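Hi R.,

Here are the chain sequences for the assembly we discussed:
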Amino acid sequence: MARSSARILIIGAGPAGLRAAEMLAEAGCSPTLIDEAPRIGGQIYRQPPRVPGFTRTAAELYGAAAERARDLFVTFDRIRNRIDYRPSSLVYDLIDNRVIVASEGKSEEVPFDALILATGAMDRIVPAPGWTLPGVYTVGAAQIALKHQGATIGKRVAFVGIGPLMFLAAHQYAKAGVAPVAVVVPSRFRSFAAAGLRLLQMPREFSLGLHWLLDLKRRGVPILFGHRLAQVLGEETVTGITVRRRGAERAIVCDAVAIGYGLQSETQLADLTGIRFAFDPARRQWLPESDPLGRATGRKDVYLAGDGAGMLGADAAEARGRLAAHALMTDLDISHVTYRPKADLETIARATQLQASLRAAFDLPADFFAAVSDETILCRCEQVPAGELRAIAGLMGAREMNRAKSYSRIGMGRCQGRMCGHAAAEILADKLGVSLDSVGRLRGQPPIKPVSVGTVAERKA
Amino acid sequence: MSARMSLKSDVLVIGGGIAGCATALQLARRGWKVTLLERDQAGVRASGVNFGGVRQNGRDLRELPIAMRARAMWDELPSLIGFDGEFRATGNLRLVSDEDRAVQLDNFFTAATKQGLGLVWLERAELRARYPWLSGKPLRGVLCPNDGHANPRLVGPAFAFAAQESGATIIEHAEITEGWYANATFQLRALDNRTFAAPVLVNCAGAWAGKIAGWFDEPVTLVPEIPQVQVTEPLPYRIEPVLGFVGGDFYLRQTLRGNILFGSGQGRATADALRSQPLPESMKRGAQIAIDFIPDLAHVPIIRTWTGVDGDTSDGVCVVGPSETHPGLFHAFGFNGHGFLLGPAVGAVVTELILDGGTSTDISGLAIDRFRPRRKASAAPARAQHPDEETEASAEENGAQSTDHCPVGVDQHKQAADSQDAAERDQDR
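And here is the predicted structure of the full complex:
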């Protein structure tokens, strides 16, 4: 096989996928770039729909990251004609060296010789009573509503959770004229402040974080450290929340809630490739394994890039996209411009350090999952309360997630555990008194996201 | 330690599926000391992950007596395993869409009715009137009103649990790699070198049972069957009967929860048959046929799939009965993807064979001697219909893990089968 004619497939057109595509295109390859969204950018640089009169500047949309976003968009415009870009396309199945893609109500098979997975990340959720009410969103979804549609999820919005994304989104809501009614953070202020001070070594990130925090303060947004979400109130829709601190509860009136406890990698397609996964104790997630350049363990034709291979953030994602493309071309003997991975590896090292500091800053209380009440709906697709999982924990082999799923229906619904799998594993491990890794992870099966019977049946010619 | 434990057993059962667990349960209830050995987790393979059809309709006539006994036992599930297994007698409807297949349906209708199975003959107009969601494609159908469906996800493990509660010893993760007969005792050795011994041995090892039978000089070739099922989002409950298509290799049912399960074609398994995975081609084929028969399904999202491994015999009929070579050895395997219904009765029949020396159920057509190599060609009559409904599966969804050291290679069987049985199997299908 002529190496330059290798069929290279990139899944995901966020920062990682785009940088990989750029590097490959510059080397004369024409990779196929498949993305679920109608426009490039991924979640972080999500673009508004193309509607006349509905334009906002990059600065308005992406704030401090506007430069990076603009640069990615310009890069994409430059390589657009040299790659096979397929927007609004869902890769719902992967087997051997081919993927099945759904678009416009039809399925298509796309074979590949080499694959770069740049599938990104999504919010991590911890359930609380009432979290399935209309008006409750993930932090990521709340931010996307703003970026994509120029809309907020409510007029009086409470933000609940941990992580920089939540503070950024709260800040963006405030700037958009919807100052959050409260930002509820279960971490203790003491650990937040202590870890925050360590971030002084990274002045850019430190000042950015401080800016969000101070801006929220200046606008009078209450930031409630050491508080947990006790309940989302409302009958038909959200009317408020109650938060708890050391047994004392208070109610906060709101009409929408954004919940997010950091981000987790989207690993469903990596799972279908059959590559090896390893448990990451820091991120508390099973992640696809790769070498520092992104070569997956267990398959020679699969490369990992971006947050899908472990959360490191958008800047590191760009670096990892380039590294993966570089590794791929090196392996396939595709000559490309001299590229020295040093700078990108440094970016990754820095991001790794930043993530570690952030994890320390947003420390969850030790009893956080034990405190999820038995009545709380854990799996929203199948309406399974946490108590049902606890009731079968340990029963006839249910010391492991897939057995637990079989007995309790947790993770058996339309999201296949993408939403509840993490919290379910934590609750199962807590109930059994074992470490999180010992309960394993839900096995992936196609379709990785729901796809209609008609779409599966119809094949593109 | 294990050697001592094994001496306490009166009976060893290999295989923790419904057949093995139901056998262990019945024996334990009659006061026998039973040790059941399961290579993985009890009830997680074919018995715990399968289509869930409880079907007499369309059975090979040789299986019909044990099937009818089994069906009666499904009504008694609460007294047997403590809950109803979500069994509902919503009927099983077998449809044909061409005249050639209609002959098959007609033959079954006549013969099964004679054996006392209650069946209803439905012409196209009646089908349309009863089941408005059906397309005009089916010509006619046969409904078995007292068939139905249950929840294998719960029933499989429940049999294991009940057996344990009744006093049977269930040893999981005990993969048996060797077995022999000496001093009127069956001896088994597990992968981790534990040994087990008892004067009576029951072989319920599913896809791996043919090889175990071989240890005792009566090998049976089993071909892996890897059914693949698609599951839709839950919808309001509307499709009551379980659907099967004669000769069409398609089956469909709606669960009480509302999910619609359908399948056609096979997934694929690793050479050791321990892991299986769905194939896009089978998903597509299933989707196409589903829309063909129920057009409204086109808009319904598929949310998951599963696959698994069962063992098929060359004539599509199971083996239930005593060994021809060794007194004290009993077989119950080769369920060809439709053993879910049979499980409870298999336990009762095998227990009667062991303790009473015989059974009132006619199992004459299920004897292992029909697979004796020399008699094979003449003793393997073509099966009446393709066993397409209760496709059984291993636990890809339910916790089965791959091990790298599987000595019971179904792949070897497959090779043998490919050369010997492929022609006649293809005719059957």
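Chain B touches chain A through 40 residues (CB under 8 Å). The first helix of chain B runs from residue 2 to 7.

Let me know if anything looks off.

Best,
T.
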